[in-house]
Automatic annotation (TrEMBL):
UniProt protein name: Subtilisin
Species: Stachybotrys elegans
Every Peptidase S8/S53 domain range: 159-572
GO terms assigned for molecular function: serine-type endopeptidase activity
Entry's Gene Ontology cellular component terms: membrane
Keywords: Hydrolase, Protease, Serine protease, Signal
Active site per database record: 168 (charge relay system), 218 (charge relay system), 539 (charge relay system)
GO biological process: proteolysis
Region (Disordered): 111-145
Length: 892
């Protein structure tokens, strides 16, 4: 039973998906991290795809030539997918080949559904007295206020002259707020479509073309966050003066391949982008994966790349996605917006002939005769009635079919009962006004004959009732062609690190994410008729950082990616921890959230632009217990023209456990513990003259009173206050425990199950598999029972091997491994490199990774996982685990 809750919590982590081999349970949603038979090859220097001839090697097509100054290589598709692993091994051994790696699958981090408040929750989680503020534009631009972008705009900076490339689903450049055109002189000046509209993932043929228009919406949303031009809603991009280029790697829906993402980054780089931003990724934690490597090389050549950290923060640490996790890449986390913005239909209300526009907070369904005006009818004039419409309406009630019926939100009954009671009198349209200040969401109640339900605010409803009581007539007409922006400026978790934002560190103990920007509840441009939409995710935080870099470039001149990371980090504001409960007000604490979640904190762009004290590096990682770096250092440089005296102090965050007491990967809200490291500085006060610099040594003593078996990450900030009023901070982190010793698999979670129910099989079970040669995609393993290798990875592993080992029966062609067992080969699709953490499962149709089929018989699966930081050449660095036995035969 306990297991189930773990699986359910991990299920929410699904970020990308779609392929044959692996399925993530329990949804059975197909999931894999590689494209069958497809490889990215990097050639040795001086080699290229033309010098690369594979006599007597398997047939392949070059899918994409990835050669550039960054990378000599190509992606290929082997014709014989069945024998791909073997062929790949032969290719890897060719002298021309430096490195080969399977093509990975990359998704848009799934947009996060912000908790859609229900009626009760709404009143509880919002302050009861929301007042419309006098400056609506300021509220529409709350993300700019949070990051000081508004102050930078006030100084006249807009990112003018800076070119930002967006690798995403394209841009709907026809949107009036995105320039309305494509080409020189437009906001979106150039780009390329690598895939075409109908591309949905790895089984589709990409249809490239010159027009990167967006039919998905995601890229358009990202583009608006960077550069939306003035519009009727008051939404403004953070760098409206930049020009954009669009490199489209997603079709209208679905995911994409890592080689396509590499090609897009390469082209963006070659076409002269000043900044490249990508709100995409795949579950990883490993900086050495090929896409991460390529993006790291672009960064090394001076072009900053901002990439979304991922949206898996609710379900565990150590899970920043690739390529965000790459060395030097700016991995961006998310914070909650201080205002909740939504768009709602506008309607008109006519009181005795005077028409005004009003916002309908919630709407479900469309009234027939759209645009037609109907009078408002009420049950009475009591605006304190807690049971308005809760019982059958009196016999003398008129036929309500020609009205909008206005009822007060009733605490005595639910909206469904109210709808049923008015429906009994023929009503087709219902307006609910709130019984308290604030927003009121309703569930859908459009059961026949009710066609439409909307809600309005309390003050508005009360005014209408009073007007009706005074004998005025009211007509309501909802039109759906206009949107109004509705803002709730008292969002109670505004400023907190988003609970969905993926949490680090990387498996190499790098600090990821580096810092963050508002990504929770972000209103921006959207495709089609719905011109604007609110979305949440690190996808929304990332473009704001890219735009901020454009502002810094314009104001301070070009800086290297490392200098930018230093500047944004040292000027960011670490945020205190907030515990967000579902149906109760959140709790704010007076201690900082972990560096593993928020990095350096929320970026402050005005401070970064005007900082005269430079701090380097952008963070300190003391590594794990085994590789503990006792003393690290940072350098302060005073670029001002006066002496500055700096006070150096320690502001610890609480430590955060990677695992629960029971040994499961921890999830939200995590367990924060008070013990923290002690830091000693070589100097706690330092005077630096103009143009001078000083290096301060930092010696850490890790905390004692923590349970090392649960891998607590300790972290915090070094605060540097200057006599000139400057105030900088430097994040640090360390791990109690040894990554080498980390048990990658949750104890007992690796077993052979039945693919129809995932239950472990009994030792005498025998599966009857589809005939040999049946393509995996033709077999629905939720309906046809086949053996499925199940495992819950608490940690990733650089390499995961799964050998098929005969049990009892004679095993022709088996070989003795160096680990002392006989194997007839690995499961098809293995080894799995840079295996991320999480739940993974691999259904098996009997095929081995050399393309042969295992003979009917009894087997077990023996797996080997390389330890984190382990050396693949040392047997002792591998963890060997075996499943119970099971039998297979084939139907014919
Ligand atoms: C309608 O408008 C007129 C003129 O502005 C105003 O005097 C009157 O009070 C308004 N009536 C209502 C019901 O708002
Ligand atoms: C931590 O130590 C491991 C093992 O030596 C090393 O590979 C890794 O780069 C180190 N991480 C950092 C951030 O120094
Ligand atoms: C709505 O909120 C109430 C109050 O906390 C909760 O008990 C209920 O489960 C929620 N309903 C839905 C549909 O989420
Ligand atoms: C400071 O740290 C860097 C990077 O780890 C190192 O190369 C350098 O030697 C250190 N400087 C001092 C003075 O310890
Ligand atoms: C968190 O840890 C503290 C002690 O470190 C313990 O008292 C508490 O019960 C833990 N909470 C959870 C949810 O594990
Ligand atoms: C440094 O400045 C910050 C912000 O002004 C302040 O909160 C903190 O107390 C200061 N620390 C010291 C040691 O002066
Ligand atoms: C398999 O073993 C279980 C008990 O372990 C037994 O109940 C079942 O009858 C056996 N099935 C076969 C086909 O032998
Ligand atoms: C053993 O290997 C040979 C040569 O590769 C192959 O022809 C034969 O089918 C294999 N036997 C089995 C039972 O797999």
């Amino acid at each position: 039973m306990v297991r189930v809750s773990l699986l359910a919590s991990l299920l929410a982590a699904v970020a990308v998906g779609s392929a044959t081999e692996h399925v993530r349970r329990p949804s059975g949603k197909p999931r894999s991290n590689i494209v069958p038979g497809a490889y990215i090859i990097e050639f040795e220097d001086g080699q290229n795809k033309d010098s690369f001839r594979l006599q007597s090697e398997p047939d392949y097509d070059v899918v994409l030539d990835l050669s550039s100054e960054l990378f000599q290589g190509a992606s290929i598709q082997l014709h014989d997918v069945k024998n791909a692993e073997e062929a790949a091994a032969r290719l890897a051994s060719l002298p021309a080949v430096k490195r080969i790696s399977p093509v990975g699958i990359i998704g848009l981090p799934e947009p996060v559904e912000e908790e859609e408040e229900n009626a009760t929750a709404t009143s509880a989680t919002r302050k009861s007295h929301r007042k419309r503020q006098s400056k609506p534009l300021e509220r529409a631009r709350s993300t700019h206020v949070m990051t000081q972008v508004d102050k930078v705009h006030a100084e006249g900076f807009t990112g003018a002259g800076i070119k930002i490339a967006i690798v995403d689903s394209g841009i709907e450049y026809t949107h009036p707020a995105l320039g309305g055109c494509f080409g020189e002189g437009c906001l979106v000046t150039h780009g390329w479509d690598f895939v075409g509209n109908s591309y949905g993932g790895i089984y589709d043929e990409p249809v490239p073309g010159p027009d990167p228009i967006d039919c998905n919406g995601h890229g358009t949303h990202v583009a608006g966050i960077i550069a939306a031009q003035e519009n009727e809603l008051g939404i403004l991009g953070a760098a409206p003066g930049v020009t954009l280029s669009a490199y489209r790697v997603f079709g209208c829906e679905g995911n994409t391949r890592s080689d396509i993402v590499m090609a897009a980054f390469t082209r963006a780089y070659e076409e002269g982008a000043d900044i490249i931003t990508a709100s995409l990724g795949s579950s990883s934690g490993w900086p050495s994966e090929m896409t991460s490597l390529l993006v790291s090389r672009i960064v090394e050549r001076g072009v900053p790349c901002t990439v979304a950290a991922g949206n898996t923060g609710g379900t565990g640490m150590w899970d920043v996605s690739s390529p965000a996790v790459g060395n030097g890449v700016t991995a961006v986390g998310s914070f909650q917006n201080t205002a909740v913005a939504r768009t709602f239909p506008l309607g008109s209300v006519t009181m005795d002939g005077n028409s005004t526009r009003t916002t309908f907070i919630f709407r479900d369904g469309y009234p027939s005769g759209q645009g037609a005006s109907y009078p408002v009818w009420v049950t009475g004039f009591d605006t304190d009635n807690t049971g308005d419409g809760c019982s059958a309406l009196p016999d003398d009630t008129p036929d309500l079919s020609g009205y909008w019926v206005l009822l007060r939100y009733a605490s005595d009954c639910d909206v469904q009962a109210q709808a049923d009671n008015i429906a009994a009198k023929g009503a087709e349209r219902l307006i609910i006004y709130n019984d308290r200040p604030g927003l009121r969401w309703l569930a859908a109640y459009t059961t026949s004959p009710i066609q439409a339900v909307v809600s309005i605010e309390e003050q508005e409803g009360v005014a209408w009732v009073q007007a009706l009581e005074a004998g005025l007539s009211i007509h309501v007409d909802i039109s759906y062609d206009a949107q109004s922006l509705y803002l709730d400026a008292d969002y109670e978790i505004g400023g907190a690190a988003s609970r969905f934002s993926s949490i680090g560190p990387s498996f190499e103990m790098d600090l990821v994410p580096r810092f963050g920007a508002p990504g929770g509840n972000i209103m921006s441009t959207w495709i089609g008729d719905e011109s604007f939409r609110s979305l949440s995710g690190t996808s929304m935080a990332t473009p704001l950082v890219a735009a901020s870099i454009a502002l810094i470039f314009e104001a301070r001149g070009r800086l290297s990616p490392a200098e930018l990371n230093d500047l944004l980090s040292s000027n960011a504001n670490p945020q205190v921890h907030v515990y967000e409960q579902r149906f109760a007000p959140p709790t704010w604490y007076d201690w900082f959230s972990s560096v593993a979640l928020q990095g350096a904190g929320l970026i402050q762009v005005h401070d970064a632009i005007h900082a005269s004290t430079l701090l380097s590096p952008s963070g300190l990682s003391f590594n794990d217990t085994t590789n503990f770096a006792g003393t690290l250092n940072f350098t302060l440089s005073n670029t001002d023209n006066a002496d500055v005296v700096y006070d150096i102090s320690h502001a610890p965050a609480r430590s955060i456990y990677s695992f629960t007491r029971e040994g499961w990967a921890a999830g939200y809200p995590y367990n924060y513990s008070e013990p923290h490291a002690e830091l000693a500085f070589s100097e706690s006060k330092v005077k630096i003259s103009p143009g001078g610099s000083a290096t301060i040594l930092v010696t850490a003593t890790p905390p004692h009173d923590l349970d090392e078996s649960r891998f607590p990450v300790w972290s915090g900030y070094i605060a540097i206050n200057g006599s000139d009023g400057s105030s900088l901070s430097l994040p640090y982190q360390g791990l109690l425990g040894s990554l080498y010793d980390a048990e990658q698999i949750l104890e007992g979670s690796l077993y052979i199950g039945d693919s129809t129910n995932y239950a472990p099989v009994s030792p005498n079970a025998t599966f009857t598999l589809p005939p040999r040669g049946t393509p995996p995609r033709d077999v629905n393993t939720r309906e046809t029972a086949v053996p499925i290798l199940m495992s819950v990875f608490n940690w990733g592993t650089p390499q995961f091997i799964a050998d098929v080992v005969p049990v009892g029966n004679c095993a022709p062609n088996s070989t003795l491994t160096s680990f002392g067992y006989r194997s007839i080969g690995q499961l098809n699709g293995f080894p799995s490199n840079w295996q991320p953490k999480g739940e993974w499962s691999w259904p098996w149709l009997g095929q081995l990774n050399n393309g042969e089929y295992a003979p009917p018989g009894r087997y077990k699966i023996v797996t080997r996982m390389l330890r984190i930081t382990g050396d693949p050449d040392k047997d002792e660095d591998w963890v060997v685990t075996e499943t119970g036995p099971f039998g297979i035969r084939y139907s014919s």
